[in-house]
Amino acid sequence: MPLSPQTTRPLFEKIFGADWENLPPVLQKHYAIRPFSHDSVTAEGTLDVIISPAMAILARLTGMLVADSGKNIPVFVTYRSCQKNVFRLERRFHFPDKPPVSFHSTMEPIGENKLVEFMRFGIGWKLSYDWDGEKISLRHQGYVWRVLGQLIPIPLSFLIGRGHAEEFALDESSFRMWTHARHPLFGVTFGYAGEFRITEVSCNNPF
To answer: What does each C-alpha distance from 190 to 85, 178, 179, 202 come to in angstroms?
Structure first.
């Protein structure tokens, strides 16, 4: 399907607005995917992963997160749109002595600089994207459940805490990131941090 003029630019160019042109090249590559396209970007890296015992049980029951903790875990991520107006993250974790574990999520724009990152069963993390000249911040806006196309707020913050993430450019091909959900009483319930290198960009966007 040929792309219309409205879909020839990256989905995140609209999310960042005027700040898009100020992003370092590696972060533009990271978010180069155009909506309704066959574009793909691949990144490889290692992460330190932490998950609380209670969250590990929930992860095993739902398949929404990885259920193991570990240091320097090799991770491969492919970003694509799947020919929709979304930004899909297909992650593959390689924990020692275990089969690879896949964890997928899909970000969908909902207006301005806000998106919802959906996991299984229509459960989503509502967040905003901001660039402050040094880093990208993904800021918590609540959790939602999509039912019949409607986004219903759900009080997951009381159970798993508030999410947050940050991304920093290291050079033209590498970036550092961390993300976590932190509960005011129980501390970090889930999180990971590490570095990635963009290894393949299959799209026609200029940088």
So the answer is: 28, 11, 8, 31
Q: What is the 3-state secondary structure (H, E, C) of the chain?
A: CCCCHHHCCCHHHHHHHHHHHHCCHHHHHHCCCCCCCCCEEEEEEEEEEEECHHHHHHHHHHCCCCCCCEEEEEEEEEEECCCCCCEEEEEEECCCCCCCEEEEEEEEEEECCEEEEECHHHEEEEEEEEECCCCEEEEEEEEEEEECCEEEEECCHHHHCEEEEEEEECCCCEEEEEEEEEECCCEEEEEEEEEEEEEEEECCCCC
pLDDT digits (tens, 9 = 90+) for 110-169: 999 999 999 989 999 999 999 999 999 999 999 999 999 999 999 999 999 999 999 999
> Rounded mean pLDDT of the chain?
93
d(CA 133, CA 86): 25
Q: For the chain, how long is the longest CA-to-CA vector?
A: 51
- In the chain the domains, ranked by start, together with CATH numbers, are 5-202 (2.40.128.20)
Structure token digits, residue 53: 């015992």
205 close to 198: Cβ distance less than 8 angstroms? no
Report residue 26 as tokens. Answer: 């590696």
Q: CA–CA separation, 26 vs 61, rounded Å?
A: 36
Write out pLDDT tens, residues 24-47.
Answer: 999 999 999 999 999 999 999 999
CA–CA gap between residue 177 and residue 130 (Å, rounded): 14
